[in-house]
Amino acid sequence: AEPVRLKDYKAPDYLIDSVDLNVKLHPTAARVVSRLSIRPNPNGRPDAALILDGDGLIVKSIAIDRAAPADGVVVVSPQQLALANPPQRPFTLDVETEVNPTANSRLMGLFRSGSAYCTQCEPEGFRRITFFLDRPDVLSVYTVRLEASRAEAPLLLANGNLVEAGELATGEDGVARHYAVWHDPFPKPSYLFALVGGDLGSIHDAFLTRSGRRVALGIYVEHGKEPLAAYAMDSLKRAMAWDETAFGREYDLDVFNIVAVSDFNMGAMENKGLNIFNDKYVLASPATATDADYAHIEAVIAHEYFHNWTGNRITCRDWFQLCLKEGLTVFRDHEFSSDMRSRAVHRIADVRALRAAQFPEDAGPLAHNVRPETYYEINNFYTATIYEKGAEVIRMLKVLIGAESFSRGMDLYFERYDGTAATVEDFISCFAEASGRDLSDFFRWYRQSGTPLLEAASSYDASAGTFTLHLEQSSKPTPGQDHKEPFVIPVALGLVGPDGDLPLKTETDNAASAREIESGVFVLSTPQRTIIFRDVESRPALSILRGFSAPVRLDYAASEADLIRLIARDSDSFTRWQAAQTYASRLLTRAVADIGAGKSPAEDYDFVDALASVLTESADPAYAAQMITLPSEADIARDIGENIDPDAIHAARFGLRRAIGKGLSSHLHTVYARLAPDGPYSPDAAAAGRRALRNAALDLLCAGEPEEGAALASRQFASADTMTDEIAALGALAQTPGETREAALKTFYRRHAHDALVVDKWFALQAMLPDADTLSRIKDLTGHPAFSFANPNRVRSLVGAFATGNLTRFNAADGSGFDFVVEIVLCLDPKNPQVAARLLSAFKSWRTLEPGRKALAEAALRRIAVRDVLSADVRDIVDRSLG
Ligand code: B3K
Ligand code: ZN
């Protein structure tokens, strides 16, 4: 197959001004009558053929301008409807098709979740409902009439506002039917279409926009789960208010509905006025959702809501521009969460996530640009690079041009491109105009993949009182890109003396450059540059990449004494945390080498002492929890970079946790006792932070003093009244194989067997156990009554957690982990290729493994590659992974 290429983009030859759909819901034979008002695009090619996309559609009837077309005028197949010589004037095309929602296991198009009907159209699902120009630059006004059995689907929703609803005469089958008509006045691309039919419970509220319009809000969930949607509703109202003050964006329809379903390929979908959610991002109660779940719900509700402006009002010209809506909307939801919670802690969590998911993607065979230039399967481009790195690039842009210019650029973007399908160039041009700066070099962040390496070296001259900093950037080749131009990297930095930040004074005659450096943000846009700071009285500690000002890897050989000073004194909360991580990473890397050489790793008391002061001095528990949480095994693997032995990494990390747990025992006990739950539950960041620190302390205590730790964990497990504390206690107990662990796992299941989302946590926890028998446990669990390969959440909890969260067992030395995941991918692929392909992308770092494991991973991938029949999704991932 040939890839789709950005450079081949052509405007559509025809436009579709309006779409009238009449959908009769039926479990196995839903009927869709569509009437399209089509006209030639003045910017298209005259007399071009009109080819509408379809996917597996059964055609029942066709009419052009309400009349049956002559033979041969329309050529149809399940995948396409073609008019070789369409009228060169406005005309209507009526097509009736039939689809089977119950048989739709791909969960794209019209499908069922439980007994409810729902849709997912982004990116190319609308063609599985009816024939259409299923591309984001064709914007139409939709009117949707839904008809269904009143008993089966008393609720009928679609985009926009409700215009009419009523009963229908009972048919010959004796089924009482009803209908509803929805109209969405805002022209939109087909990927934003949605409908829902079913028997659901709901909660309702209202939001008054700043111009005084009342918006009716509804959240629809399974009957009985209504109270669990309260936090989602609260998050929605806060998101609506925030977008008005932070970005000046007001909601535009009379209703905003959210529907939660349990079978969903991703997190949620921003359909205009009718968001459809994975119920995991809607339902929460203290006893069933962790603090992390609450934070995710808040973020995802906000993210989908924010799409109303960044994605829906201004959409993408083509799928290469995906980051235009996704990177920007992630940037917006990060800002929202930072305002709702602790900005410092949030930044750390976002960077941890970026490094965990995006850095390995950018360093391996699946690396691609934030704005890709080719694709075989667009579904595989909903990646951490498009989303998270896309957001980082916008954050950098803001650092570079300043908050004011940034805000003017956003306003310009909304004003100029509202109602259009735009490009990344359109977006960036607004900031160039608002800031008066040339951003063409900055645009390389969109055109070049790979994480740049920023190397810093420094020297101090005591007699001259100067501190010299040399910065150098370099980028390794990535697939299809051997040579890179330098990136424009904003490097926020400071110099830290024994008592804190020093004023920055530079040695340069260039006033502009002096101002830039003294502002604390230095822009490296060339391969290398040197800065000399003057009036520096004693050797300072360099605090570099403050706030993680650019998505780069940093290599700077700070002395351990400097790291300790930064941990204690750095005014920037991010680099203060980073100093602790860097210190830990250094100890861990050394320990891995020692273990590899058959030696036992040396202990380091300075690091443990530094953490002790964090525990005694830190005023913010959430921040302290981040400080004492070591880099993950995957973080360590990335720092080492090649010839990875996951067992040595696991042993090294365990050893350091044990050393900290022992060394800080009394501090940890104090923290654990001091932060015991008191007063009523609150999901807010302060209360969550206390739980986070207490549970981080418990985790270390269990590593340092297994028996005492287990006793604390058992007590907590028995008495916990929040899921956060309950699952943390279970996780702590699960560190030690044996009867106590198995009994606790059984108890947990018994307590929560009726709640699929909580059972998912139980699956995931077991999937991530480092024990040798984990794989056989997982294989048994695939036969558990609560498990189903048809439900994406279940598959992700068990198999996904194993493949992405269990470094040692997925990469087991005998290849059994690889073989298992390959087997699951092959069995899922015919049913749900998107989920299968996502699972397969867990192999993205296979080339960094030591030779034995590497060979086994490659052999496993090749077993997929040689198959004749694979989905486009899995074919694309496997070929690129091996490429
Ligand atoms: N836009 C959707 C993602 C659609 C994914 C299709 N494979 C959710 C979001 O990013 O908000
Ligand atoms: Zn999104």
Automatic annotation (TrEMBL):
BP terms from Gene Ontology: proteolysis
Superkingdom of the source species: Bacteria
GO molecular function, one term: zinc ion binding
Domain called Peptidase M1 membrane alanine aminopeptidase: residue spans: 231-444
EC numbers on record: 3.4.11.2
KW Hydrolase (keyword) present: yes
InterPro entries xrefs: Aminopeptidase_N-like_N, Aminopeptidase_N-like_N_sf, PepN_Ig-like_sf, Peptidase_M1, Peptidase_M1_dom, Peptidase_M1_pepN, Peptidase_M1_pepN_C, Peptidase_M1_pepN_C_sf
Substrates-to-products reaction catalysed: Release of an N-terminal amino acid, Xaa-|-Yaa- from a peptide, amide or arylamide. Xaa is preferably Ala, but may be most amino acids including Pro (slow action). When a terminal hydrophobic residue is followed by a prolyl residue, the two may be released as an intact Xaa-Pro dipeptide
Record-annotated Peptidase M1 alanyl aminopeptidase C-terminal domain positions: 561-882
Location of the Aminopeptidase N-like N-terminal domain: 20-192
Swiss-Prot/TrEMBL cofactor(s): Zn(2+)
Main enzyme class: hydrolase
Keyword annotations from UniProtKB, A to Z: Aminopeptidase, Hydrolase, Metal-binding, Metalloprotease, Protease, Zinc
The Peptidase M1 alanyl aminopeptidase Ig-like fold domain, residue ranges: 450-556
Entry-linked PANTHER family: PUROMYCIN-SENSITIVE AMINOPEPTIDASE (PTHR46322)
Family: Belongs to the peptidase M1 family.
Protein name: Aminopeptidase N
Annotated source species: Methylocella silvestris (strain DSM 15510 / CIP 108128 / LMG 27833 / NCIMB 13906 / BL2)
